[in-house]
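Protein modeling request. Please complete all fields; requests missing the sequence field cannot be processed.
Requester role: graduate student
Desired output: 3D structure, token encoding
Chains: 1
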Amino acid sequence: MNCRHCGTPLRTPFLDLGAAPPSNAYLQPATLHAPETWFPLRLMVCEACWLVQTEDYAGREALFTDDYAYFSSFSDSWLEHSRLYVDAMTERLGLTADSMVVEVAANDGYLLQYVAKAGIPNYGIEPTASTARAAREKGIEIVESFFGKTLGEELAKMGRAADLTAANNVLAHVPDINDFVAGFAALLKPEGVSTFEFPHLIRMVAENQFDTAYHEHYSYLSLIAVERIFAANGLQVFDVEELPTHGGSLRVYAQRADAVRPVSDRVTELLARERAAGVDTADYYAGFQVCAEKVKHDFTAFLIEQKRAGRTVAAYGAAAKGNTLLNFAGIRPDLIAYVVDRNPAKAGNFMPGSRIPIVDEERLRQDRPDLIAILPWNLRQEVEAQLAYAREWGAQLVVAVPTLEVL
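Delivered output (407 residues):
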């Protein structure tokens, strides 16, 4: 395989999680007894541009289907993050009723609803029918399509160019990252701004966040790699912020290559910090496999110990990262009876690969399990607050990543 950005042959391994079905390919009861498609889940590093990436086995149409089950609005903390983003961008960029905001990967309208409330014209671009439908129910206009250079050019020619484009947790999700980035350069007005949020590779490595690896994540991003990719496709990074979301993310600000905003010191400082850590050296990526395997072994041994002791274990949050952990560790319903999720699009279905049933939260109150494993550890504080009632019957909460911890 060659690098999806620069075309260099990939030879440096980073992480091998065996094989798994797509992490958001939840099974319905009617398909439970049918076979599943599993793909190898391996990550490689390009030693030319330092883009970390999955090996190519599944196309985007196989992963982002019409019944895609990830809806952003079911996380209260993410909604608050999005509201604050809209407030900050409105003030920083002076957005008004004469501006245009476009969100790429608009999902269920979780962010654009706040843009609309502020009286700022907007529309979203979203390829999955299920989430696009939910966004339209909020009154958000959606262009239901995958985004790239051709679509960006078409929209700009239609007079729909953007003063601000938002792209949250999607840059890692695109197989053709060059075409995707070039689309923003085409869609922006001359003085427009694009922001991108994505999990930061440095935090993934430092905190053993191996379960952020799944097929829908084609790329694992450092600022070093992003700056090069953007420069090759008509964008310039001019500012960056470090965020706590999703275990540690970056918000990158970019402008067209012909724009004139000065580059912030924060960009220079973070690039220097990444180089000091060794992000642009092969040695930086060695040893991550061992860390992931330790989590796998510790979590599996813990669950077996609980089983032998007669304790009941459930899990909370049917998240994609949870599916990575469960399938890498070989966890099945004999060790975790079910997974609770607030999203009605998931409840009643089954986790891909492990085939653990997904139930609504009332099941917890009825069964009163001894332990509850929090799978979306990035929402740990939010989930702990939601599950405070489980302490009443003495339930213990558990996280497996970055290390096994009973809360």
